[in-house]
Amino acid sequence: MIRVLEPGLMTTVQDRGRWGHQNLGVPVAGAMDECSHRLANRLVGNSSELATLEVTLVGPSLEFLAETTCAVAGAGFELWLDGVQVQTGRAFCVPPGGGLRFGRRRAGARAYLAVSGGIDVPPVLGSRSTDLASQLGGLGGRSLRAGDRLVVGRPTGRPAISGAVELPFRLPVGGAHVRVMNGPDRERMTPEALASFTQGRFTIDPDSNRMGYRLRGELLALADSSPLLSGPTPVGTVQVPPSGTPIVLMADRQTTGGYVRIATVISADLPVAGQLGPGDWLGFELCEHREAVAALIGLEQRLMHVS
Predict the structure, then answer these.
(1) Rounded to a whole number, what is the distance in angstroms from the first to the last CA of the chain?
(2) Which residues is 244 bridged to in the sheet?
(3) In this predicted structure, what is the pLDDT of residue 68?
(4) Which residue among 30, 134, 143, 306 has the highest number of C-beta atoms inside a 10 angstrom radius?
(5) How confident is the model at residue 307 (pLDDT cuts 50, 70, 90)?
């Protein structure tokens, strides 16, 4: 059992998402940076499907009521266990009554706290992930509050990884470039807008969330503003509404959308995108399908070699 002393800015229960119900309009949700979620679980001997706590920008203070093996991966937070600093990217044991506090954040935006056995909240449609917009999953579909108690599942029996493990990608500090593939509606943009999209930088607006990043920067003009039939919106879709202000769709995105889809962030760079926060800059680089596949294979190989 874990007791929440201070919840942090936005701490939610997440796993790999609520797949298989998009045809019914149910968002996927899940970890914004699935790579770090998977790595944290691996460090404590969990399968990647078990739920972790996603910590956003400002972390929580937690009390553990029983001895628990933990690990934190993702954003570079200072971590304090009963007043003693511990490392991210390494499994550690919290004694009964021990307190874990997240301190200053140095890089990235989101960290993942895994515990041996996983965070055991009731699954909703096959997932424990919190979808804030739909209020599904997690603890009543909301972020943590002071006084909440979290049940820890039964450990799998697999040993934790000894030693420190580095993330298989570079954490952004202040911003990042991500690679994108052309979207299905790019012909609806003006040539000038297409050039500006990849040559400029955008800033993530404070009015951004797990559903999507609203970007500030040069407006992207539409060459064709006639109505568009709604189409599927995979994670990383970059939409351009009539206002010309791009939106990058993230974990809690809707399942379909009717805005122009100019590009899609490649899967290998989604962890980087998931580590960005309000005020960070974001740039886009076009790549080919074969490059996207090679980048994803490389990322998965680096994760597979964690031991």
Answers:
(1) 27
(2) none
(3) 94
(4) 30
(5) low
pLDDT, one tens digit per residue, over 53-101 is 999 999 999 999 999 999 999 999 999 999 999 999 999 999 999 999 9
Number of residues assigned to the chain: 307
Question: Is the model's pTM score more than 0.85?
Answer: yes
| Tens-digit pLDDT profile for residues 196-240 | 999 999 999 999 999 999 999 999 999 988 888 899 999 999 999
State how far the Cα of 303 lies from the Cα of 307, in Å rounded to an integer: 9
Which homologous superfamily does the CATH classification assign to the domain defined by 175-304?
Cyclophilin-like (2.40.100.10)
**Domain boundaries defined on the chain:** 2-150, 175-304
Whole-angstrom distance, CA of residue 182 vs CA of residue 180: 7
Contacts of 84 (CB under 8 A, 6+ apart): none
Report whether 245 contacts 219 (CB < 8 A). yes
Contact call for residues 66 and 44 (beta carbons, < 8 A): no
The residue to which tokens 């994760």 are assigned: 303
Closest to 52 in 3D by CA, of 113, 108, 128, 9 = 113
* Residue 213 structure tokens: 């990043």
| CA-based nearest residue to 265, from 244, 251, 255, 245 | 251
For residue 114 the two structure tokens come to 């895994």
